[in-house]
Amino acid sequence: MNVPAWVWIATIGGLLLLLAIDLVIVDRKPHEVTVGEAARWVVFYIGCAIAFGIGLWMFAGGTYAGEFVAGYITEYSLSVDNLFIFLVIMAAFAVPPIHQHKVLLVGILLALILRGVFIAIGAAVIAEFSWVFYVFGVFLVYTAYKLSRSGLGGENDEYKENRATRWARKLLPVTKEYHGAKVFTKINGKRLATPMFIVMVAIGSADVMFAVDSIPAIFGLTKEPFLVFTANAFALMGLRQLYFLLGGLLRQLHYLSVGLSIILGFIGVKMILEALHSNSLPFLNNGEALPVPTIGIGLSLSVIIGVLVITAVASVVRSRRENSATPEPKPEPEPADNKR
Question: What is the SS3 assignment for 182?
């Protein structure tokens, strides 16, 4: 896929314009994002991704459009794991609800920049060393196993600051209290960072950690850096609104970790099969390709969508059963009137 420089520039410019519009509209007057507002924005961003996919289908063909759709759905699904840690970080830093959207916007913009760097490095490594698909495939299978055992959100909900956050605290003195939506403030003539700045660093750096498995996963669906980047960008942009839309419902996605582990394992096996099919390692079959089947993008997309639908339905059914099995509290009897 030959993507001219002007297409890259126009795409990145369009994505930044969407983020700017979001920032101006939502943060023009800081407020707590409602479920209805979040739902409208989620639909808007999904619509933008669909429109982009249609554009790819018209100008680049169905194969590339299918790879983008598969990558976007996978990245958007894997991003749910990010939401758990976002909830924990917001609670740990006691971020006021009216400022949470701005925190997520800046933190995810930082993550998008860093992911772009990771994607560029990953594309260069894949182009130079074809055997890296063996490494990515085995890593994804191992990640799938760990996810199936631990579930989403990790083993506990206690937030521990990572190195980036600790480094930010050491580099800049931080105030104890929030100062509205300010990232920096001046007290007695001294410039200080506010907790808002630390939260943004925490959100951005936490999301980069999740890119360790999501970036190899999407490279297993497409080798095109342009599609990898745009799929990540659209998934990240819609992530903020998904945070407000789902909220407490995240805990009701009981089987999502199982579904995501199946998807990661499936993509890992797909990568290993493709690596064997185009093998060049001299110690394996004398450097010749092995006659193994490969998995096309059509089957990949069907498996990804099918697994997500099944796990989502199963989660809803379980939640309804648990809610119906929970006895409603009996009303307390009214005290009888004392009659003399």
Answer: coil
pLDDT (tens place) for every residue of the chain, 340 residues total: 788 889 899 998 988 888 777 767 766 666 677 777 778 888 888 999 999 999 999 998 999 999 999 999 988 887 776 777 777 788 788 888 777 777 777 777 777 787 788 888 888 888 777 788 888 888 888 888 887 776 655 444 566 777 778 888 888 888 888 887 788 888 877 888 888 888 888 887 777 666 777 788 888 888 898 999 999 888 888 777 787 777 656 666 777 778 888 888 888 898 888 888 887 788 787 778 788 888 888 888 898 889 888 988 888 888 778 777 665 555 555 555 554 4
Rounded Cα gap, residues 258 and 78, in angstroms: 12
Q: What is the largest CA-CA distance in the chain?
A: 103
* Distance, C-alpha 208 to centroid of its chain: 10
In degrees, rounded to 5, the angle at the alpha carbon of residue 104 between the alpha carbons of residues 16 and 213 is: 85
Beta bridge partners, 185, equal 192
Residues 6+ apart with CB under 8 A from 127: none
- The answer to whether 234 and 45 have CB atoms below 8 angstroms apart is yes
What is the torsion angle, in degrees rounded to the nearest 10, for the CA atoms of residue 210, residue 212, residue 216 and residue 217?
-20
HSE-up of residue 27 (Cα within 13 Å, Cβ side): 18
The SS3 of residue 190 is: strand
Tokens 């790819």 locate to 56
pTM, to two decimals:
0.77
Q: Which residues is 191 bridged to in the sheet?
A: 186
